[in-house]
Write a structure and sequence with these properties.
Strand content: 5-15%
Largest sheet: 2 strands, antiparallel
Keywords: Membrane, Transmembrane, Transmembrane helix
Organism: Micromonospora inaquosa
Structural class: mainly alpha
Protein name: Major facilitator superfamily (MFS) profile domain-containing protein
Strand order of the largest sheet: 1-2
Length: 130
C-alpha cells in the first residue's frame, strides 16, 4: 500500500482483481485456440503459451491481493473463529484446485474454486474499505 494511504487499498484491490480476471479469462480460452502444449502436466493437462500468460497474471494478481488482505487483517476486526473458518475454506479450495490438476478427479476444481471464492468474497470487500 502506498505511504499516503488516500484510497490506496481500494485502488490496489481493484487493480489486483483486474489482473485476476484477465488471467482467468485467458485460462478460459478453448484448447483448440491456444496452440501447442509447451509443458505437459498430467493426462489431459498441459501448459501452453496462452495458459502461461494467464497463470502469470493470475499469480501476480492473486499474490498482490493476498498481501493486501494479510496487511489489512488486523484492521478487519474479525473474530478468531471467523478467521479460522475463512482460512480453512481458502486452504481447502486451493488444495482441491491443485489436486484436480494432478489427479483423475477433474471436476473437483469446481468445488475448490467455490470454496476459495467464498473466502475471497468475504475478505476482499472488507479489505477494500478505507
Amino acid at each position: 500500500m502506498s505511504a499516503d494511504g488516500a484510497g490506496a487499498p481500494r485502488k490496489q484491490v481493484v487493480t489486483a482483481a483486474l489482473l485476476i480476471i484477465a488471467g482467468v479469462l485467458l485460462l478460459f480460452v478453448p484448447a483448440g485456440s491456444e496452440g501447442s502444449v509447451l509443458v505437459p502436466i498430467s493426462e489431459g493437462h498441459g501448459l501452453s503459451a496462452v495458459d502461461g500468460v494467464g497463470a502469470a497474471l493470475l499469480a501476480v494478481g492473486g499474490t498482490w491481493l493476498e498481501v493486501l488482505v494479510v496487511r489489512r487483517l488486523p484492521h478487519l476486526a474479525l473474530p478468531p473463529r471467523a478467521l479460522f473458518a475463512l482460512g480453512l475454506l481458502a486452504g481447502l479450495g486451493v488444495g482441491l484446485l491443485i489436486a484436480s490438476v494432478f489427479s483423475g478427479f477433474f471436476w473437483w476444481w469446481a468445488v475448490g474454486a467455490t470454496t476459495l471464492g467464498l473466502a475471497v468474497l468475504v475478505l476482499v470487500p472488507l479489505t477494500a474499505r478505507r
